[in-house]
Structure to design on (412 residues):
């Protein structure tokens, strides 16, 4: 801690009431379910009501389940690929993006990302397509739109399913204002503790296809269609959302638009407090997004584009060492993390060792060496710093964050 840190009191965070929108509505929801004595969604109405409300919000059929990872598993299972088939995805995401591919005996193939946004580079995706590719899973990292228009067209040209992982991108849009989650054949959302809205854990998968929705619903409930007898139409697990979770999720869903709006407003305040910036390390590329360079622009930092961003986290791309940056911010009392991940997804032991028991199936003969996705590795190891973001941040909080960034800037 420096002698006189910018920030002495902690910013509101997701592990305390001040940093969550959990209140009277969620309390009433929990009691409503408890008083009904029906806690399983097979027999109650909360999960089905949540699905209807999500369907209304996104204009797609929705299936509720137990986590974001489960939602992605429903999606991957609904693709219906054969063991050993390939799914192209990003090396920068939560493990929940890739675990379902392996769980369905598929092979994750990692394509590199854009060096500034960390989102999948469509050219790298197209170059990774082989005769065994069946789907693409795109993540809207930190809430910023990946290039879903290009990815949709690649998927269509090659006959692939496109799955959008919107776990970090509730109500995010493209720069043109089109809702993320409406480009993919399926889109998946998370209600985990750290997300924009939460029920502790929980997930939702949406689709415009009633056939895909049926497959996801069956996979969510042991392949059991429940219309008559105990008939299991396909392999499925128990990924049902409980009624308690669904009731809380309904109350949270009603708040998501306001949560995203407030996060956008405070992010806009931070961007304007920091002025325009360029990234010398990236060849002086103009900072994505608006803002001029007047008023003390910060050297050596790229700020995210505001357009459509849902601001799950606030990413900075720095020209210096991201660990020095993060340590400097933490010393000023502002939480920060260098790289978001410790390593790319493919650098995790599961990609070099056995997957099932002592078997490496379905990854035999597959290698995921260092240098596979250089842009992703550079972001994690050198250039990316992420700040937790929160709908409860006040103007004073954001002023403090801006001052801490200026003070922590090793180039400043
Ligand atoms: C991009 C992304 N995908 C998937 C997941 C998995 O979601 P969950 O933790 O709800 O299983 C998360 C978050 O944890 C995530 O951030």
């Amino acid at each position: 801690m420096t002698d006189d840190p910018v920030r002495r009191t902690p910013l509101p965070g997701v592990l305390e009431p001040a940093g969550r929108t959990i209140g009277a509505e969620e309390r009433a929801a929990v009691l409503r379910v408890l008083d009904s004595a029906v806690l399983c969604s097979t027999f109650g109405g909360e999960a089905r009501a949540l699905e209807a409300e999500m369907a209304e919000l996104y204009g797609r059929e929705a299936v509720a389940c137990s986590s974001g990872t489960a939602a992605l598993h429903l999606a991957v299972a609904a693709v219906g690929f054969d063991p050993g088939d390939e799914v192209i995805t990003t090396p920068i995401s939560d493990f929940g993006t890739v675990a379902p591919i392996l769980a369905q005996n598929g092979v994750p193939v990692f394509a590199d990302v854009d060096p500034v946004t960390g989102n999948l580079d469509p050219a790298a995706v197209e170059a990774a397509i082989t005769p065994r590719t069946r789907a693409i899973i795109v993540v809207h990292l930190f809430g910023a739109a990946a290039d879903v228009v290009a990815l949709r067209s690649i998927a269509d040209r090659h006959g692939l399913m496109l799955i959008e992982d919107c776990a970090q991108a509730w109500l995010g849009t493209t720069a043109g204002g089109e809702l993320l989650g409406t480009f993919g054949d399926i889109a998946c959302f998370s209600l985990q503790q750290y997300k924009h809205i939460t029920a502790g854990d929980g997930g939702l998968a949406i689709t415009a296809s009633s056939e895909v929705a049926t497959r996801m619903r069956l996979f969510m409930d042991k392949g059991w269609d429940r219309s008559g007898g105990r008939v299991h139409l396909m392999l499925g697990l128990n990924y049902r959302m409980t009624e308690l979770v669904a009731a809380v999720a309904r109350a949270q869903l009603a708040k998501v638009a306001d949560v995203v709006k407030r996060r956008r407003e405070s992010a806009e305040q931070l961007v304007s407090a920091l002025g325009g910036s360029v990234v010398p390390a990236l060849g002086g590329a103009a900072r994505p997004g608006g803002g001029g360079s007047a008023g003390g622009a910060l050297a050596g930092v790229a700020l995210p584009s505001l357009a459509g961003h849902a601001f799950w986290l606030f990413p900075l791309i720095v020209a210096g060492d991201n660990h020095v940056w993060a340590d400097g911010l933490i010393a000023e009392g502002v939480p920060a993390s260098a790289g978001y991940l410790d390593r790319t997804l493919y650098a995790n032991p599961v990609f070099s060792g056995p997957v099932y028991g002592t078997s490496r199936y379905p990854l035999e003969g597959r290698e995921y060496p260092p240098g596979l996705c250089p842009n992703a590795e550079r972001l994690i190891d050198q250039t990316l710093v992420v700040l937790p973001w929160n709908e409860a941040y006040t103007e004073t909080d954001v002023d403090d964050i801006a001052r801490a960034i200026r003070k922590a800037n090793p180039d400043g």
Q: What stands out?
A: The first helix runs from residue 24 to 36. Residues 74 and 216 are 5 Å apart (CA to CA). Residues 67-69, 93-94, 96-97, 139, 165, 167-168, 190, 192, 201, 203 surround pyridoxal-5'-phosphate (CB under 6 Å). The two ends are 18 Å apart (CA to CA).
